[in-house]
Amino acid sequence: MILYQRSELIFPHHCIATLGELRTARWQELVKRVRSLPQDHEDTLAFCFLMVELCGCLSCDLNSYKASLGCQLCAKRAITAFKGSDLTLQRRFEDARAKVHAVMNGEANCLLPAEEEQEEEEEED
Fold it and tell me: What is the reported pTM?
């Protein structure tokens, strides 16, 4: 009998494969391509970064309801509940890939979403 399921704090690579049949062909093709890549590939990192944003992994707490569901179910719920189109998801993936690429090449600092929003507010003042 398993009392506790294994919980990660951010979206793990092994959960990518479970998301393949959730939406249209555009999404399915993206998942199929990314799940076949190594964990440290730029596109895999970008996909995981996208899922971290969609699932709200940075605010997840091991005592929360979402954490009790586990990453796979949380990710499935986030993707099926996403109100935008698959084209919008594709664009968000491409934005995530551009951010990952910039950080990996030393062209940008890795900023958490809250820090980005704070910087934008400071720039507006």
Answer: 0.78
48-86 pLDDT tens trace: 999 999 998 888 887 878 777 888 898 999 999 999 999
**C-alpha span between 98 and 1 (Å, rounded):** 44
Which of these, 115, 6, 23, lies nearest to 78 by C-alpha position?
23
Distance CA 107, CA 100 (A): 10
Helix (H) or strand (E) segment spanning residue 33: helix 25-35
Q: What's the burial of 25, exposed, middle or buried (CB within 10 Å: 0-12/13-18/19+)? A: exposed
Please give the helix or strand (H or E) that residue 79 lies within, else none: helix 71-81
Contact by Cβ (8 Å): 82, 54:
yes
